[in-house]
Structures are given as C-alpha cells and as structure tokens.
Amino acid sequence: MVSLKLQKRLAASVLGCGLRKVWLDPNEVNEISMANSRQNIRKLVKDGFVIRKPTKIHSRARARRSAEAKAKGRHTGYGKRRGTREARLPTKILWIRRMRVLRRLLKKYRDSKKIDKHLYHDLYMKVKGNVFKNKRVLMEAVHKQKAEKVREKTIQDQFEARRAKNKATRERKAARREERLSSGVHLEQTKPAPAAPAKK
Low-confidence residues of the chain, pLDDT below 50? Predict the structure, then answer.
C-alpha cells in the first residue's frame, strides 16, 4: 500500500486540524498519492476525497443531571462525603459571611440616619464580639436600643419640665411673699400713731 503520510500532513495543515482528524478516501488512494502540494490537496478537499472528521461529542447530560440532583440535596449523605465538615465548609467562611451581612446592615442603618455614629460603633463592636448570631437578632437589638433611648429622653424631658415648673412656682411664691411683705411695711407706715392717754 502506498504511504500517504505526506498527504495526511499537508491535509492537516490545509484543513487547520490535527492528523487524527483527517480522513483520506480509501477508494481513491492512487489519486490522493499523486497529490504532493497544498494546492492539489485543496482540490481533493473540494472533490470530497479528503475530509475533516467531525469532532467527537463528549456529552455532559449525565453530569448536568447529577448536578441538578445534588442541588436538590440528593447523593450528599454520610456515605458520599470524603472531607471533614470543616474542609467541606470552613467555619471561617461562615463567620466572614455573617460579619459581612451584619456590618452591611449597620452601615445601611447609619447612612439612612436610623442610628447615630455612637450607637453604630457600640453595635459594631458587639457584632465583632459574636453577640448577634444573625440579622434578625441584630435588628431586634437596634429597635430595643432606640426604644430605650427614646424612653430615657422622655423621662429626661419630663424631669426637666418638672424642674422648670417647680422653679417657676418657687419664683411666684417668693414674688408674692415679697409683695405681701412690702405691702405690710407700707401699711404700717401709713397707720396713725395711737393717742397718748389723758393724765388725771
């Protein structure tokens, strides 16, 4: 049989693929063996004696189906696990996720003026100290602290109002007393002296 090594190499170059993808028609061996240039090879390609084989299909259908099942939670029991719990999902990753969620919430509250910078800092440090296990608990804490602040402010205002009222009352009483005293002195001055008793 004639060696078609040269023709195969030239065909691979012309078709822009590897040697294993070139198909040479076994019925036209003599015709193909005559071709010793790229131009001749192009003519053979045009005639259909030299063909580029189609790419082999490596289906991912089974892999996709398996991935869908795993997403639903199938095939993930104890028997399928190779790494430790820490290796499969590190606690550090969980911590980072939680920190980011809680800090994002605090930042949002501060930017929207729901909390002031002092309360923000206080809660930020508590978040870092692992006080809040999730977003809901932190939100509850924020509402609680805000309510507490409002209550304290109300009590303070009431106290101030009471002090002001007592002060005003005291001032009024003092003014009245002054008035009474001054009017009393005035009366004494205007009253005529009693007549001396007649001598016998």
Answer: none
